[in-house]
């Protein structure tokens, strides 16, 4: 066991840290859900791109740095520590790009990868549907081949940046007669195609970050299909593996959250209250445990072992922990937690609420906590499956 | 020994339920979110006309002269409906405290106007960090009952500095009040203050129980209909057990709250304990209902257009207002251990 | 809403209170699991019987007082408040007796009721089996009719007082071809019948209160069957209704437990610790809530409404609450909780452990917490049933 | 950056596992419950002969000269096996503290004898209410390391008044010791005491993690086999989710504990925090494992003849010994907030 960095890793850390110290905007950018904020975020992404930090995990051949997992983790940690802006094109950098690299044709790579890297083209993800939910493969959006085109009809939901995205990578059903997990195709669709309508979803935290996307006879060239027609489920499943590198800096964020909780307790004059102290200490314990768990998983992945179903332990852990952290913050505020804006608190109450609802959403998206528990029970513990209804 | 309501009390409850089903639908509640003041004068007037607002006001002032036990089921229905108007503050707290502790002159000045719905009242119980008071619907009320430690004060709203606040739950807005209190504003003795505290706690518990019931009902309806993996979500044991646990808490909170109302009406020796027990337990039950209902709804529960959040936010506010569960436990611990 | 007692009820309460004050032994009786303790408990039961308190809920015709539920509750509360000895023949007084009264022939009543009332005959219950558990109807003990006798073979488990009991009322399978819930018979079996072997079960709290009972060709006269052959499941289900009167004094006991917890906190010098105070207050809240819940249920039952599946809420509530009370006690003791005897604590650590394990067992017996939740979900909330495997 | 053990460390772990599978089966543990002292001298001697006891003792005294990271997996296996002997106290605490802080004379007197298994040691960390110390296997040890606030003391057992206690877990007995400490018995400075405290916490966490794993494994085996309502108990979602939650806690506790061992070996600045994090989390994980395992076993888990209770009682004892979760959280709160 050796948690020190090599000289080379240390040098990379120093380089990243210095670059971020120089380049991270002093003021937080406006929210990317506004047109103004989006431009500011695009400019920031462009800066990252020019410095070679846009996608360090991509192969060098496609503009990345071929960074190994540890190097990615170092970058993610420093990025989180610096409080740098959230990444807006993560779905393209983390999912669409790697899918193209692994499954795309050379033409497809040339067409799409550069725009992803430079953030000239923003991507959204078209997997979820209203009637599918946790049961992703129950998707109903259809694509019927007519000559060299697919004609797409249906509806996607929970697409990020839907209003601003240039492209959507979507799963569509190309064969209704095939079993549920077959007959699904992975296709890239321009968001300005005729027949696409985007309706923002107003969320309960009043954030319009997600949209519904409706497809009516949307015509897509067949060469926008990645992989083979009817073979999209396999690719969709492969994207789950790409997510393994995405949470590497999360533990830094959670530790920062506990620091904010401590600052809040002090500001509320509650830091001598033993009940508050006990809860803050418990949140600290949980974030520390998560940090060690992250490093442990990192080592396993770096040595070529997949996390496999144990990724569910990770997801379940942090989403539940995050909810508790923000709920504790609201409890600390007491009756003031009902306000939606209060300048007195160190972290504005608004911001707490927003993050609290996000945290609660994290128990739903990317596999609900209940589904994670099923996976752990059946695939980690080996318990017998439920009888099918 | 009869731990139940009378037929008359159930009839009042049914009347309130019917009224809310007509006049306080989710669409009505939603309309208040966008409304200028967030309070419907017309609905309040109607509520007053039916006698609900003046339920606890003596008959000589135009009320029904009834008690906390008569009111408690109405408060629950108000929570269930998501009523924006300050029925809790006016009818469960200010009116009976005035009736019991105010001078004849003060009663003459206010009670009839409260009974007719002409005047609204609220309670300044929760303090903001800066010495101001947070008061529900403080921006539209006429009268404020201030609970300041061991003393109660009565202040006309026009004598306060009133600053409306942005609230998470725009169906129950809060204003920050700066209030000058002194000997001139004092209402009654320490007993008036103690009684006020207990009425606030028991009343808030009753409203919370209604909110929790609504959260549970919305969720039962959702999981009975929504299918995943080819079967209703509500047929999964994990979902069942969550909702069974929630039901347990919510159903248990109700008799405890009813008892607190009874203890108030009867001046029972355990009145203060009963009120804290009710608010502590109802708050925790509401927190559980909040958690499980949103989780069982999945993504749809996070959308503005779904009604769930109207009650999620009410639950979140009332759970922490008027003394959180841990505040009330601290009060109980002092009674038990000191 | 009126929680006052009538003059008559008050008079009964005073009478019971006075009788108990005069008659309850100053020293706790030895455990009824010992021969000596059993005799002492029998003597106490006899005293209750002679005073007319053995089974006040039974009809006057059979030696009871025809007491209504409120009167029963008054008796149970006073009994608990007085710290009177636990009742040893509860299964007979609460289940076998009422079954006989409702379903027995006049001969059967005459034969068994007097011995139950006087505690001359002690009864155990033969429902549970090792392979049945929560699924009571999966029982396998068989009874084959041969002339005027049933020949019983099989095994029962978790029988109380098995070693000392004179009789066992058992469910046996008389028809193997019938559906699971049919073909079951309710029968009274003398424990001294040839072919019965009783093996005490040593529990983890080192209490040998339960036994396994093995039946090898045990011959029982057919007139020991209550109701009809093959109709026992209906009677077994009816016994669930009889239990409704049994928990009426429980809330007194739980409140006493919280008082003991408070005394323990003081003795451990922990009563100023805000974390301890918060937990004790929570236990107080829970016991108070339970008390009100009990009175509410009592009123409903007294007015002729059955509790029905809501009895599950009650069972779930108290068994979970009881476990928490005793767990808090162990936490208060800290490292000393690992000792199994320590005279310094107000309630000996031994006693806490014993009650802690009992409390945990209460989450299993008479329907596990999981089964109670299923019942609440399906029969109170009306959620859809699980698909059958 | 490598958060993993070396092949050598895994080989040691495998050796320990194999040893325990042969010499510390449930039947062996059970035998200790009825044994006169509850400690098998023969097994301890064998453990010493394999080098496990002296693992952290410098080679010059006949040990292997290894560290806390090398030992931590062995402690976990000891917990998994339910080992009655004081490996935690001797090898994880007393030996390394002596090696680091004792005088040459003291080291000469004790370390070789500990390494050969001739002498046993324990730690006096938990106080009984009456000023005595509770010490694991205190009735059979030769040497006692006392952690008294900011000071460590080393006392020969023969100089203590030793009173064996009845314990819930007769596989790990406890004696009450009356100990005279003073300048003559003091060992090292405040740092020695701090290090001792951290070694106790981290070591106890490691053993607890093994206990929790065993509880979980016993339960998985049971619910996979036991059928109710025509299907394995483990196929019910409620059971699955309980055990998934337990697995989450237990698996998360392990890397945190390994890190604490690493922080001890490396003298990291967050050593004290890491040790408290490990013990707090491992204690709560063990409490969860204790709860769910017994519940999932149903009635059979309450019987003396079933092995489950051997680990239930070990979990219950170690969860509260050497600082409970809330004790360690209080320590962390002081570090974070004061």
TrEMBL record, chains A, C:
Domain of life, per lineage: Bacteria
Positions of the Acyl-CoA oxidase/dehydrogenase middle domain: 126-218
Example GO molecular function: flavin adenine dinucleotide binding
Key words, A-Z: FAD, Flavoprotein, Oxidoreductase
Domain Acyl-CoA dehydrogenase/oxidase C-terminal: start-end pairs: 230-381
Signal peptide range in chain numbering: none
Record GO cellular component, one term: plasma membrane
Cofactor needs: FAD
SUPFAM superfamilies for the chain: Acyl-CoA dehydrogenase C-terminal domain-like, Acyl-CoA dehydrogenase NM domain-like
Acyl-CoA dehydrogenase/oxidase N-terminal domain boundaries: 6-118
Segments traversing the membrane: none
Keyword Flavoprotein: yes
UniProt similarity note: Belongs to the acyl-CoA dehydrogenase family.
PANTHER family: ACYL-COA DEHYDROGENASE, ACYL-COA DEHYDROGENASE FADE29
Name of the protein: Acyl-CoA dehydrogenase
Gene source species: Egibacter rhizosphaerae
Automatic annotation (TrEMBL), chains B, D:
SUPFAM superfamilies the UniProt entry points to: Acyl-CoA dehydrogenase C-terminal domain-like (SSF47203), Acyl-CoA dehydrogenase NM domain-like (SSF56645)
Domain called Acyl-CoA dehydrogenase/oxidase N-terminal: residue spans: 6-118
InterPro entries with a match to the protein in the record: AcylCo_DH-like_C, AcylCo_DH/oxidase_C, AcylCoA_DH/ox_N, AcylCoA_DH/ox_N_sf, AcylCoA_DH/oxidase_NM_dom_sf
Alphabetic keyword roster: FAD, Flavoprotein, Oxidoreductase
Acyl-CoA dehydrogenase/oxidase C-terminal domain span: 203-336
UniProt cofactor(s): FAD
Single GO term (MF): flavin adenine dinucleotide binding
Family under the similarity heading: Belongs to the acyl-CoA dehydrogenase family.
Protein name (record): Acyl-CoA dehydrogenase
Organism: Egibacter rhizosphaerae
């Amino acid at each position: 066991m050796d948690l020190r960095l090599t000289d080379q890793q240390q040098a990379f850390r120093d380089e990243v840290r210095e670059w971020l110290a120089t380049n991270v905007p002093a003021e937080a950018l406006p929210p990317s859900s506004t047109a103004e904020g989006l431009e500011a975020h695009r400019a920031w992404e462009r800066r990252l791109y020019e410095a070679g930090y846009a996608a360090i995990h991509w192969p060098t051949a496609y503009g990345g740095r071929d960074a190994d997992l540890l190097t990615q983790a170092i970058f993610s940690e420093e990025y989180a520590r610096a409080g740098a802006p959230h990444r807006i094109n993560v779905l393209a950098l983390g999912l669409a790009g790697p899918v193209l690299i692994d499954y795309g044709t050379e033409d497809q790579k040339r067409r799409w990868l550069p725009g992803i890297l430079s953030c000239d083209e923003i991507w959204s993800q078209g997997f979820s549907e209203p009637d599918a939910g946790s049961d992703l493969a129950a998707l109903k959006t259809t694509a019927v081949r007519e000559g060299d085109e697919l004609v797409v009809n249906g509806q996607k939901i929970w697409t990020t940046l839907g209003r601003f995205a240039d492209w959507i990578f979507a799963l569509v059903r190309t064969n209704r007669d095939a079993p549920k997990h077959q007959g699904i195709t992975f296709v890239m669709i321009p968001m300005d195609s005729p027949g696409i309508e985007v309706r923002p979803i107003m969320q309960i935290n009043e954030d319009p970050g997600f949209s519904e996307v409706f497809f009516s006879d949307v015509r897509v060239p067949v060469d926008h299909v990645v992989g083979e027609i009817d073979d999209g489920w396999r690719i969709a499943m492969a994207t789950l593996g790409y997510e393994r590198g995405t949470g590497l800096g999360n533990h830094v964020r959670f530790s920062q959250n506990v620091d904010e909780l401590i600052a809040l307790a002090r500001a509320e004059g509650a830091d001598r209250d033993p009940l508050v102290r006990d809860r803050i200490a418990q949140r600290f314990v949980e974030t520390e445990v998560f940090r060690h768990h992250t490093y442990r998983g990192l080592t396993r992945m770096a040595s070529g072992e997949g996390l496999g179903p144990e990724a569910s332990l990770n997801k379940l852990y942090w989403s539940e922990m995050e909810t508790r952290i923000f709920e504790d913050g609201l409890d600390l505020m007491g009756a003031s937690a009902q306000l939606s804006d209060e300048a007195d608190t160190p972290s504005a109450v608004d911001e707490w609420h927003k993050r609290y609802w996000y945290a609660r959403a994290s128990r739903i998206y990317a596999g609900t906590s209940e589904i994670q528990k099923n996976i752990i029970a059946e695939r980690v513990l080996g318990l017998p499956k439920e009888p099918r209804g | 020994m009869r731990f139940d309501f009378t037929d008359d009390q159930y009839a009042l409850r049914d009347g309130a339920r019917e009224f809310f089903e007509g006049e306080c639908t989710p669409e009505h509640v939603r309309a208040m979110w966008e409304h200028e003041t967030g309070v419907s004068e017309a609905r309040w007037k109607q509520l007053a006309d039916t006698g609900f607002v003046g339920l606890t006001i003596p008959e000589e002032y135009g009320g029904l002269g009834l008690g906390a036990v008569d009111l408690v089921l109405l408060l629950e229905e108000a929570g269930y409906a998501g009523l924006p108007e300050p029925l809790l503050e006016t009818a469960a707290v200010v009116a009976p405290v005035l009736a019991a502790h105010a001078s004849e002159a003060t009663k003459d000045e206010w009670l009839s106007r409260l009974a007719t719905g002409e005047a609204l009242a609220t309670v300044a119980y929760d303090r903001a960090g800066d010495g101001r008071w947070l008061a529900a619907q403080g921006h539209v009320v006429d009268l404020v009952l201030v609970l300041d430690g061991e003393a109660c004060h009565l202040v006309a709203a026009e004598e306060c500095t009133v600053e409306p606040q942005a609230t998470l739950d725009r169906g129950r807005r809060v204003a920050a009040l700066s209030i000058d209190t002194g000997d001139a504003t004092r209402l009654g003795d320490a007993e008036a203050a103690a009684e006020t505290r207990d009425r606030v706690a028991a009343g808030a518990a009753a409203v919370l129980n209604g909110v929790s019931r609504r959260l549970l009902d919305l969720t039962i309806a959702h999981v009975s209909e929504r299918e995943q993996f080819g079967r209703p979500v509500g047929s999964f044991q994990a979902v069942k057990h969550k909702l069974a646990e929630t039901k347990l808490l919510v159903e248990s909170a109700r008799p405890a709250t009813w008892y607190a109302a009874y203890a108030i009406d009867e001046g029972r020796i355990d009145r203060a304990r009963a009120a804290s027990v009710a608010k502590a337990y109802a708050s925790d039950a509401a927190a559980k209902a909040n958690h499980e209902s949103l989780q069982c709804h999945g993504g749809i529960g996070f959308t503005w257009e779904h009604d769930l959040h109207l009650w999620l936010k009410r639950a979140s506010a009332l759970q922490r207002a008027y003394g959180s569960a841990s505040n009330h436990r601290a009060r109980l611990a002092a009674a038990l251990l000191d």
